[in-house]
Amino acid sequence: MKISLVTVGKTNIAELRDSIADYAKRINRYGSFEFVETSDDKLEKTLEKFERVYLLDEKGREYTSVEMSQFLEKQMMMSPKSVAFVVGGPFGFPQGVRDMSHGQIALSKMTFPHDLVRVIFLEQLYRAFTILKNEKYHHE
């Protein structure tokens, strides 16, 4: 299963780009991962190639880190070829993108800058893999 983080717009802050690259490298140890930057007008077309699409949206379901690892494990058991997690632009997602999604995940009830959300989500994705592998990264 290939996992992708699809984002609207480019990451503007160099330190966050470095963090994204670091977490992408870590996640790739567990499977295939790619970071995709696109534009609002190309988002729907970009998402058509993915078998499953989950929007990172404040109205979505909140997970603990352990629950997120269980969600990830469930996705892997369903064996889709590709799963995309999507960070929208400043005005959210157009209805067409919402219609094609398989669900929504909220990282918090708070609002974060979109550049920072990318790093937060990738850290949680990495954490989910370490939980599944019983590695020492996550402490409860």
What structural category characterises the helix and strand content? alpha/beta
Q: Please give the number of β-strands.
A: 5
User: pLDDT average, as an integer?
Assistant: 95
In what order do the strands lie side by side in the largest sheet? Answer: 2-1-4-3-5
User: In total, how many domains does the architecture comprise?
Assistant: 1
Overall description:
- By secondary structure, the chain is an alpha/beta fold.
- It has a single domain (2-132), classed as Alpha/beta knot.
- The protein has 5 helices and 5 strands.
- The chain has a 5-stranded parallel beta sheet.
- Helix 1 (14-27) runs parallel beside helix 5.
Search tags:
140 residues, alpha/beta, 25% strand, Alpha/beta knot, single chain, 41% helix
Short description:
The protein is α/β, with parallel strands linked by helices. The chain contains five helices and five strands; from the N terminus they run βαβαβαβαβα. It has one domain: Alpha/beta knot.
Write the layout of secondary structure elements.
Layout: E1 2-8, H1 14-27, E2 32-38, H2 43-47, E3 52-62, H3 65-78, E4 82-87, H4 95-100, E5 103-106, H5 114-132
Parallel strand pairs: 1-2, 1-4, 3-4, 3-5
